[in-house]
Q: What sequence folds into this?
């Protein structure tokens, strides 16, 4: 039976994440927003602390335990709240401190989620400790990952990769990159595989770092691959092209990362709500949870509506993470959580800027920064429109060819 209360065994970990966000991330948030592309050295100490916690088995890091489709909850009657739930809730707390700094955490890259979801057992052990960025988006493909043009051609015991990837989070700082490429474009989605490419691999080149609206402390890179040779053993999972499974391996990665991105949006929005409540109270605007919204001031009524939307986003995020922990297929729920949280995150942070007027719009407070940061959470890992399309396909039982 699903229980969406914060698991008691994870309460200590989540409280630690909140304390770290409040005492380490929040104080340096503005500094690294202004110093775009400068590496936050303070994170090295934080990464060492997280490594220590991970060794205790309390959490699996940002990559969590993965959504491994070869395991089924039916094999066990035990209901558990594991690494995915712990990661999602901890990420929400860390993004309450600063989303960009969370994305800059060493060894906690989005590529680690791909490894957790798709890699075989030998690869999971071999890649332990790596910091992996994830390279999906290409010029001209947008959010349609099925249109990937980067190729991987088998040559002896190596794959030769050619192509270009853009908007790679931690693409410059990470020590490896999980690259999505097609083995055979004529085979469609089923031929798209993930490869772990090390940054010192000849043929990989970081072309530039992007200047962005938000998450400025996080480096976002454009990377080219020119006859980049990768050992065949670094293809994540099975090299077989199974047209019946389609885009399964790639989707397993998204089923893992989308609840985490939803958690980021939930955390950033919560930060805005907490500060806005305090600022409204200082301005004499009382928010009464025991009275109907329509009998309160317009500002208070708007705030209550924002909190209700936020609560819905959090519950959807927790449901998707819970299903991943219990090895239940969660593609629908992962997209619902990402769509809801991405939209709510942008709506909440921008509305908080408006509610707080000049204080919200100026750099006197972090509200304007959170509004800038939150927008990316509605875009990467699949835009709002892509998520709604996926949800529609799942609900109506239609394929991607039937509903575009």
A:
């Amino acid at each position: 039976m699903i229980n969406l209360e914060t698991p008691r065994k994870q309460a200590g970990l989540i409280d630690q994440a909140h304390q770290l966000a409040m005492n380490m991330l929040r104080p340096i948030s503005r500094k690294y927003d202004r110093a775009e592309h400068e590496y936050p050295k303070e994170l090295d100490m934080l990464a060492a602390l997280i490594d220590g916690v991970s060794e205790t088995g309390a959490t699996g890091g940002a990559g969590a335990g993965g959504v491994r489709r070869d395991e089924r909850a039916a094999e066990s009657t035990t209901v558990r709240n594991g690494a995915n739930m712990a990661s999602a809730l901890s990420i929400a707390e860390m993004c309450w401190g600063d989303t960009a700094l969370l994305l800059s955490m060493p060894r906690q890259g989005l590529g680690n989620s791909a490894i957790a979801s798709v890699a075989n057992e030998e690869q999971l052990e071999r890649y332990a400790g790596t910091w992996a960025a994830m390279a999906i988006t290409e010029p001209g493909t947008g959010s349609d990952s099925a249109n990937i043009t980067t190729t991987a051609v088998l040559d002896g015991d190596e794959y030769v990769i050619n192509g270009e990837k853009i908007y790679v989070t931690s693409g410059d700082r990470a020590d490896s990159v999980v690259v999505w490429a097609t083995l055979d474009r004529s085979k469609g989605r089923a031929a798209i595989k993930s490869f772990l490419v090390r940054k010192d691999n000849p043929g990989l080149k970081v072309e530039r770092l992007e200047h962005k609206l938000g998450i400025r402390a996080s480096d976002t890179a454009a990377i080219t691959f020119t006859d980049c040779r990768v050992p065949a053993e670094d293809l994540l999972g099975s090299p077989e092209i199974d047209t019946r499974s389609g885009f399964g391996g790639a989707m397993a990665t998204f089923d893992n990362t989308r609840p985490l991105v939803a958690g980021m949006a939930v955390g950033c929005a919560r930060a805005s709500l907490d500060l806005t409540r305090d600022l409204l109270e200082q301005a004499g605007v009382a928010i009464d949870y025991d009275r109907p919204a329509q009998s309160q001031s317009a500002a208070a009524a708007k705030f209550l509506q924002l909190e209700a939307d936020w609560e819905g986003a959090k519950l959807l995020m927790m449901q998707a993470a819970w299903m991943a922990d219990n090895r239940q297929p969660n593609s629908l729920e992962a997209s619902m959580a990402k769509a809801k949280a991405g939209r709510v995150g942008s709506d909440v942070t921008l509305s908080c800027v408006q509610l707080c007027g000049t204080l919200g719009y100026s750099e006197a407070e972090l509200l304007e920064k959170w509004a800038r940061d939150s927008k990316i959470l509605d875009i990467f890992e699949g835009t709002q429109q892509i998520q709604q399309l996926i949800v529609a396909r799942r609900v109506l039982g239609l394929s991607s060819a039937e509903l575009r």
The chain has three domains: 8-126, 132-234, 248-396. The two ends are 35 Å apart (CA to CA). Strands lie at 132-135, 151-155, 158-169, 176-182, 192-198, 204-209, 220-231.
